[in-house]
Amino acid sequence: MDNTEIDIQPDMPPVFCVEQQVVYPSQGVGIIKAIDTKEFKSKKVLYYVIYLEVSDMTIMVPVEKAEELGIRAIVPYDEAEKALNLIGEDYEPIPSDWKLRYQMNLDLLKKGSVMDIAAIVRSLYHRSKVKELPILERKLYDSALKLLEDEIAFSLQKPKEEVETMIFNRLEAK
Q: What CATH fold (topology level) applies to the domain 77-172?
């Protein structure tokens, strides 16, 4: 890409770079494979081309929409450790109304911080020990758990299986 393409949107330069690992909260952990310009509605738009290993899918996200969609860099090592520690801490009881609980957790997932995702996993894991989760909530739990495992594995540079064991050991400790 030459500099003239970057100047197309001087108000919104790319925050991430090629080969950087990122988290797309609703999709998973990915790697930026390219930053391309495409024409959209007769306007040149800058896009991140992100490969998502978990779904073996490549997606294009407009640079100007990345923050709004919650796309962020993988957390550093110490943040990943904090998220693991959060899983083992005491937690506030969550509403018994599953629809309210689901919406609260869905909102947290959309915010997409690693701490929010860890809080979802912790609360739904413990709730599932009391009563089986409704299907939608179970899918939300599975998505949050997968996202947490992937991000922590990348951040700590450990195999996903090892991270999964770490997470469940901390969940079971409570």
A: Methane Monooxygenase Hydroxylase; Chain G, domain 1 (1.20.58)
Burial class (CB in 10 A: 0-12, 13-18, 19+), 36: middle
The C-alpha atoms of residue 123 and residue 104 are separated, in whole angstroms, by 11
pLDDT higher at 162 or 174: 162
- Quick one: CATH architecture of 3-73? Beta Barrel (2.40)
Condensed to tens digits (0 to 9), the pLDDT of residues 78-105 reads 999 999 999 998 877 778 888 999 999 9
**Under DSSP, is residue 30 helix (H, G, I), strand (E, B) or coil?**
strand
Pairing of strands 57-62, 72-73: unpaired
Give the pTM: 0.82
